[in-house]
Amino acid sequence: MRTSHRSECVINQTVEVLGDQWTLLVIRDIVFVNRRHFRELLTQSLEGVASNILADRLRKLVEQGIITKSDDPTHKQKAIYSLTEKGIALVPLLLEMAAWGHEYLPTSKLQGLARTLKEGGPELRAEFMNELRKAHLPASG
């Protein structure tokens, strides 16, 4: 894991962790679509991520403490990816990105869960994040 940064700027450091397309889309799929296995993330992504890129991004997200990787109790050859509290804390950022895109990108559509969470306000977003904690964090479930 990289410990040095190009600068001390917090925006730069955040971009170094989250700043590529695939990282954010992997997080999106784990958060909003509950894709938690490698195969699901690989084959069900609308954007068609390559397997080597996906493996690299998952590894980096684990190294950064945004997700964890553990053995799937239902299948000994599968791993399951879970959000950490650090990963769950990205939900408001993802929702703001979705709202910005809906506002300023004419072809984008705010759909499904993102739309529901935007319209539901802070209480519904907090409830959603608590549900993620129950599903992803061992001590919360």
From TrEMBL:
Keyword flag Nucleotidyltransferase: no
Determine the domain of life of the protein's source. Answer: Bacteria
Q: Where is the HTH hxlR-type domain?
A: 9-109
Q: Which UniProt keywords apply?
A: DNA-binding, Transcription, Transcription regulation
List the PROSITE patterns hit by this protein, alphabetically: HTH_HXLR
In alphabetical order, the GO MF annotations are: DNA binding
Q: Which Pfam families match?
A: HxlR
**Which InterPro entries does this UniProt record tie to the protein?**
HTH_HxlR, WH-like_DNA-bd_sf, WH_DNA-bd_sf
- Report what the protein is called: Transcriptional regulator
Q: Which organism is it from?
A: Dyella monticola
Q: In the record, what lineage is assigned to the organism producing the protein?
A: Bacteria, Pseudomonadati, Pseudomonadota, Gammaproteobacteria, Lysobacterales
